[in-house]
């Protein structure tokens, strides 16, 4: 479902004709929203700050502030990791970074091509915006529908937001500047390409959406076998702490393991459901194990995963009849 963005924007800009078509309750709810997140960075490790989002699904109430974005002081400028879900977020983030550090932003690194991670790019057009080549290709293909969907989810918060594509290819390896050993990892599985940063100096992994912590992983673009291989790679780096794409900072590798167990359960459960010939609606009602009961956004995120993943799993499982 793609929203007619022009008519929505007209409504939001206060055209009485368009506004009159919105239900009264919705109109007054939107008018009451103050478009300010109150973003404040907190330190995750020496020289590494994050803006921690809520472990909720997108809503007009949270304005899409459900994602973690970061910045790292390299000693020769700041590297920003992801820019959030809209222009307002990006601008607030930039202002908060300015208050927190006298160092200039040197470049932006984008983790992947999901809109809650790059739609704040408008606030960073004066610096290189880097993304892996496959991320750039995916963004080129899907930026339009992704922005439309975000208008549907967070509404007024998207006011004035335009997609700013990345300007340069991000390469794997140590960043070629700065005084800390900050390594770019180019992996895959959550999407076609997922970038993470590993700070060798503090043992901090900024994992992007390869890792979720106490928040159910999202799977609209996922390839679970490749995601699991990426998690092996991240665990092998033995991080002291992990800043996930969604959820709080965690010590050691617990968040990597939780993400892995959830994905393994998801893949096994849907595989078995397809073997048994369950319909999609039946697969959606399967019980969630006790170990995941306290994970946020369940069972909603599980139901969404079934809708994304089940058709292909059924295809692969059903016997071919010639
Ligand atoms: Zn995300």
TrEMBL record:
Signal peptide: none
Metallo-beta-lactamase domain residues: 66-246
Superkingdom of this protein's organism: Bacteria
Pfam families, per the entry: Lactamase_B
Record family assignment: Belongs to the metallo-beta-lactamase superfamily. Class-B beta-lactamase family.
Name the record gives this protein: Quinoprotein relay system zinc metallohydrolase 1
């Amino acid at each position: 479902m793609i929203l007619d963005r022009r008519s929505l924007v007209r409504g939001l800009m206060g055209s009485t004709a368009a506004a009159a078509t919105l239900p009264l309750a919705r109109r007054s709810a939107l008018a009451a929203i103050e478009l300010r997140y109150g973003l404040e960075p907190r330190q995750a490790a020496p020289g590494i700050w994050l803006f921690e989002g809520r472990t909720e699904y997108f809503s007009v109430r949270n304005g899409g502030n459900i994602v973690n974005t970061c910045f790292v002081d390299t000693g020769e400028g700041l590297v920003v990791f992801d820019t959030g879900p809209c222009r307002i977020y990006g601008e607030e983030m930039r202002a908060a970074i300015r208050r927190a550090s006298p160092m200039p932003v040197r470049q932006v690194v984008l983790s992947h091509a999901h809109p809650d991670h790059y739609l704040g790019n408008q606030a960073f057009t004066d610096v290189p915006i880097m993304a892996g080549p496959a991320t750039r290709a995916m963004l080129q293909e899907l930026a339009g529908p992704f922005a439309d969907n975000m208008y549907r989810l967070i509404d007024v918060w998207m006011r004035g937001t335009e997609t700013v594509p990345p300007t340069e290819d991000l390469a794997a390896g140590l960043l070629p500047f700065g005084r800390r050993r900050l390594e770019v990892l180019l992996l895959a599985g959550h999407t076609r390409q997922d970038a993470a940063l590993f700070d060798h100096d503090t043992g901090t992994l900024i994992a992007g959406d390869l890792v979720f912590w106490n928040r159910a992983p999202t799977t609209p673009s996922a390839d679970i076998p490749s995601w699991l291989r990426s998690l092996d790679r991240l665990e092998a780096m033995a991080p002291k702490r992990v800043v996930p794409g969604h959820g709080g900072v965690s010590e050691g590798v617990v968040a990597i393991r939780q993400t892995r167990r959830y994905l393994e359960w998801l893949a096994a459960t849907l595989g078995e459901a397809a073997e048994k010939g369950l319909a999609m609606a039946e697969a959606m009602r399967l019980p969630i194990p006790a170990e995941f009961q306290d994970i946020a956004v369940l069972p909603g995120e599980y139901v969404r995963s079934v809708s994304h993943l089940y058709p292909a799993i059924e295809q692969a499982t059903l016997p071919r009849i010639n």
